[in-house]
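Figure 3 (text version): structure tokens given as input.
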């Protein structure tokens, strides 16, 4: 849900500026946004319906490209009807390639202009060229990173040449909207942020709980889904929270001595605001997360391990904090 949560600061700013905002998304996305903005106007629109697998994830996604292209065409027809019905004058789309209108200011958000396929540089270049064809249908491409290289996304967002309509708008995080706490001192526990796609979310949760159950190290798990139940035989040195809203997650992150998380980009933008020691575990098969974890290890000294490498000794290794400049979290406002 990272693409949904990073829209929250934008919605908040638009409402503060007195704009009328409509949110278009599926039921799960609408429920998340409604928790922050209950009086917002909502428009149902289906997602891409991408299915994930335990193995050969990128190949599995590639096989779904025909279905994705059909859905992009369908949503483009839908947005034309929506704009006419509601007199829309600006569209802000987060990685939805069909949500543009030739006669309306249309903005697409992305942090990944150079897609990592894991199939070699020449395939990457072909995919990037096709990607730019989609991006340049919009009035603007907002790159969610700082302009100075390498930034948070490294070569994903700093890729030699840019789309003709591209601007860097800085970072987006719901943590920037939370009530500041009087104390940010560590309470000694480790925080495990385990949202993400299934079945990999459950697999990493089981592995980390098994490892930490053999220790006295206090830890808190945020499972990322309100429907989750506390795992059977959960150890006494841990606390399990199926889902935490942004304010609670923010408070728990500030109190942690170490945070263990996936290397999804929205998660990284949140944790860059917090500035706590960090261990990253990319989702197996997600080339973007694998690249980001390696990039942050090289650039910021942040520890990362594959799911197979996980062990207590790995988790106990010293790591660095990800601390990003606060100024780049409000830069997007100057483009609205």
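Below: residues designed for each position.
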């Amino acid at each position: 849900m990272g693409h949904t949560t990073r829209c929250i600061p934008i919605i908040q700013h638009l409402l503060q500026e007195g704009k009328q905002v409509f949110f278009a998304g599926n039921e799960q996305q609408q429920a998340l946004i409604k928790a922050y903005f209950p009086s917002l106007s909502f428009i149902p629109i289906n997602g891409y319906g991408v299915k994930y697998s335990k193995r050969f994830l990128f190949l599995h996604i590639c096989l779904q490209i025909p279905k994705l292209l059909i859905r992009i065409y369908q949503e483009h027809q839908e947005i034309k009807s929506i704009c006419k019905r509601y007199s829309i004058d600006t569209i802000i789309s987060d990685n939805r390639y069909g949500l543009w209108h030739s006669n309306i200011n249309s903005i697409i958000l992305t942090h990944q202009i150079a897609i990592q396929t894991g199939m070699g540089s020449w395939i990457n270049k072909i995919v990037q060229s096709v990607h730019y064809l989609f991006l340049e249908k919009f009035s603007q491409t907002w790159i969610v990173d700082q302009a100075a290289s390498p930034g948070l996304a490294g070569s994903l967002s700093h890729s030699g040449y840019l789309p003709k309509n591209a601007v860097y708008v800085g970072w987006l995080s719901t943590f920037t909207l939370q009530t500041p706490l009087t104390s940010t001192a560590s309470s000694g526990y480790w925080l495990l942020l385990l949202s993400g796609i299934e079945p990999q979310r459950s697999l990493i949760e089981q592995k980390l709980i098994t490892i930490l159950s053999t220790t006295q190290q206090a830890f808190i798990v945020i499972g990322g889904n309100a429907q989750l139940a506390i795992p059977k035989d959960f150890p006494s040195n841990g606390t399990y929270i199926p889902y935490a809203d942004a304010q609670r997650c923010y408070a728990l992150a500030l109190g942690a001595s170490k945070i263990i998380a996936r290397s999804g980009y929205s998660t990284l933008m949140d944790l860059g605001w917090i500035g706590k020691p960090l261990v990253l575990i990319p989702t197996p098969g997600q080339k973007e997360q694998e690249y980001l974890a390696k990039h942050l290890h090289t650039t910021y000294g942040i520890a990362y391990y594959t799911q197979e490498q996980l062990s207590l000794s790995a988790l106990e290794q010293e790591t660095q904090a990800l601390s990003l400049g606060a100024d780049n979290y409000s830069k997007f406002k100057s483009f609205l």
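The chain has a mean pLDDT of 91.
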